[in-house]
């Protein structure tokens, strides 16, 4: 939770913004708008001040040699964040892969790490790098790869309004930053291996925390 969030200042700022665009914040239709915006900002920016590495470490379980596998992939994890340039949302899916060391991480924990890092003013490129670094540090993984595919409202709703455009970024650490490891992980993500009990799914057996 973002303890720094000041609802009263947000509401006052929204009223000023409505005045600045030439509208009347006192009209009945806008009476609850400042409060609604404060509610949405509390959710959008809940990750400010959150220790995402601690979230990762809380989800770690020890794995026996036979349980670790060589690569764990979780595909199509939905996320949303807010672009720090225009304070407009970007929404997409993440594909998360890691090469385990002595530990595994719960599948649900991976999505919580992503949400904590995404719930801040962000750039997509930095978001992927931060998620990869967080998982690598919290899990002590030998390699991490994060692929993000998102639509940015600053692109789809303003300017040239490229409504069908999406942005793909790739961040990697350790063994998955090497050409061979990176290519294997991306190929498995694209092929969907692991969604029906293949090697990627089996590698995280018993770690769905």
TrEMBL record:
Domain GTP cyclohydrolase I: 10-189
Protein's recorded name: GTP cyclohydrolase 1
Keyword Metal-binding appears in the UniProt entry: yes
Similarity-based family: Belongs to the GTP cyclohydrolase I family.
Gene3D superfamilies for this protein: 1.10.286.10, 3.30.1130.10
Pathway entry: Cofactor biosynthesis; 7,8-dihydroneopterin triphosphate biosynthesis; 7,8-dihydroneopterin triphosphate from GTP: step 1/1
Organism the protein comes from: Curtobacterium luteum
Recorded superkingdom: Bacteria
GO term, biological process aspect, one: one-carbon metabolic process
InterPro entries registered for this protein in UniProt: GTP-CH-I_C/QueF, GTP-CH-I_N, GTP_CycHdrlase_I, GTP_CycHdrlase_I_dom
A GO CC annotation given for this chain: cytoplasm
Subunit structure: Homopolymer.
Record bears the keyword Cytoplasm: no
Any one Gene Ontology molecular-function term assigned to this protein's record: zinc ion binding
Entry keywords, A to Z: GTP-binding, Hydrolase, Metal-binding, Nucleotide-binding, One-carbon metabolism, Zinc
Binding-site positions, Zn(2+): 83, 86, 154
Pfam families on file: GTP_cyclohydroI
EC number(s) on file: 3.5.4.16
């Amino acid at each position: 939770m973002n303890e720094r969030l000041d609802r009263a200042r947000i509401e006052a700022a929204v009223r000023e913004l409505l005045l600045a665009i030439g509208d009347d914040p006192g009209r009945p239709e806008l009476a609850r708008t400042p409060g609604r915006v404060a509610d949405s900002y509390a959710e959008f920016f809940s990750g400010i001040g959150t220790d995402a590495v601690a979230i990762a470490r809380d989800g770690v379980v020890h794995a026996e040699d036979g349980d670790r596998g060589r690569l764990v992939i979780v595909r199509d994890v939905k996320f949303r964040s807010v672009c720090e340039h225009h304070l407009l949302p970007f929404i997409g899916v993440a594909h998360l892969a890691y090469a385990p060391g002595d530990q595994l991480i719960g599948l649900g924990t991976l999505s919580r790490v992503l949400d904590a890092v995404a719930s801040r003013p962000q750039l997509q490129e930095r978001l992927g790098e931060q998620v990869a670094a967080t998982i690598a540090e919290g899990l002590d993984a030998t390699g991490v790869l994060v692929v993000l595919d998102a639509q940015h409202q600053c692109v789809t709703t303003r300017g040239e309004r490229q409504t069908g455009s999406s942005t793909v970024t790739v961040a990697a650490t350790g063994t998955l930053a090497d050409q061979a490891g990176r290519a294997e992980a991306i190929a498995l993500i694209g092929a969907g291996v692991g969604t029906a009990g293949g090697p990627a799914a089996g590698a995280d057996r018993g770690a769905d925390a």
